[in-house]
User: What shape does this take?
Amino acid sequence: MEKIAVLALNGKKKEEIDVPSIFEAPLRFDLIRRAVKVTQSVKKQSQGRDPLAGKRNSVENWQTGYAVARVPRNKGSGFPKARNAVFVPQAVGGHLAFPPTTAKNNHIKINKQEKKVAFHSAVAATSKMEIVKDRGHKLENIKSLPLVIDDKIQTVKKTQKIEEILVDIGLWEDVIRAKNYQKLRPGKGKLRGRKYKHKKGPLLVIKEDFGIAKASRNIAGINVVNINRLSVENLAPGAMPGRLVLWTQSAFNSLSKM
Assistant: This one.
């Protein structure tokens, strides 16, 4: 079985451990894409319309004999919209014939076995240098993948200490890449608290949190996730496999049971 080096917090080799067989899984990018779509569909909020939209009118029906369409019309006279057709779907300002409803379930489903294969494939893709590099990550100071670090990193509570560790193990260039990228988002998202688009940096997978999550949350591009809550979307944001991942030793060993 192939061996992989475990790094100490100073970036030096501490010991060697076996690589779990999950990293030999076949790469199924089609299943990764499906699994990410399923995760994103669950996050979507159902759209709806006001039940009274287009129906707030005082109307009358003229019946026959006026050589005009028999549709509801505004009551009254002496104002621009008097006698205009209202309420019905074909009228200006009328209600929608079949508006979207919050009762509709937009969640996409996936087979359990396909989801499992997608997860294994996403994990395996994180160990391929060419795939990780194609995703845009900086690997100049990284000799091999996957990257495994001592569990002591889980107890770090200072952001400055985390930054020093990232410099020592060669991940700081990728953090700088994420920090320097800021692109204006197209569309209405600018008005909804997400004005800029940002790059994804390294992902830190841990077994237990003793302060590392809070210490890392203000570093650009960095995400910290527990191995028990690790999803395909964490490993392949935007359905693009090959995220740069830093595993703690205990989390890495847990992969053999998944």
Remarks:
- Strands lie at 3-7, 13-18, 59-60, 73-74, 147-149, 183-184, 196-197, 203-206, 223-226, 245-248.
